[in-house]
Amino acid sequence: MHTLVVAIALIWSPAAPFAPVDDARVAYVDGLDALREGSFDVARAAFSRAIDADSENVEYRIARGVTALFAEQPENAIKDLDRAMQLSERSKESRMWRAAADRMQAQFFTETYPQSTNDPFESTVGDVSAFWGQTFRAVEPGYEPSAAEQAERRAKLADLRRWFVSRKLEVGNAVEVLWTRGRARCDRGEWVEAAADVEAAFARWPDDATVLYYHAGVRLASGDLEAARREYTRVLTSDTAHANAYLGRALASARMGDATRANADVATLATLNAGLADRNREGVAAALRDARVPA
Predict the structure, then answer these.
(1) CA of 64: how far to CAs of 7, 59, 179, 202, 267, in Å?
(2) Cα torsion 43, 44, 46, 50: sign
């Protein structure tokens, strides 16, 4: 099987509709990724980098404190959550998690934040933290919670952890950070690593031509050839002179065994960027020879 080299560096410079991001925000999103996977030490280190860059950011303090809660170390969450409350007296979230830290230490009558509210997420935080504290910190001498009970409490805590991360990635400029990181990974050829980030951007901006171009590249790299070809065509509908999109569509068509479409796109590519066409002509021909012809 021949290796195909896909040129993915954009030859255009569209006006980017995305706000610039800083290193602190990237570190924060890296931490959320690690937290979602339960890699607590990695998450804590990433959140610490974010705090080092922006020490008065309430969101970063909450994230590092909550990481300690999810790692079943509520005592280690107190400093960050107290600092978050100091930085923003109006932050309901910091008070909610501070109360959760109390409950996980079997301090059930905390007045910091109510255990139940009209918000399903807040009530789940209250209940999960209270039940965890009852199971692991408030047991009577000689009482050992059953293995099933312990497993259930830890499973609910893990579910809450993933819910926390998913909520965080839906707000603020987290998706912009994912997009920036995903695009950089694509440019380095790290398609597998980029896929989730590019998917997040595509879900937010499905009609943006730049996002669509990179999403098509991820589809091509994963072998989803028909979808990749459709998306390259959509890019070309908005920019008929996008040389790299012609190359991408040629490669997708070649791997599908469609010589007519592949050769036509290479011919068009040659009129737009002869050097790019020359560098990839053999790759397209190799793909045609090795094609997986549709049944």
Answers:
(1) 39, 9, 23, 28, 54
(2) positive
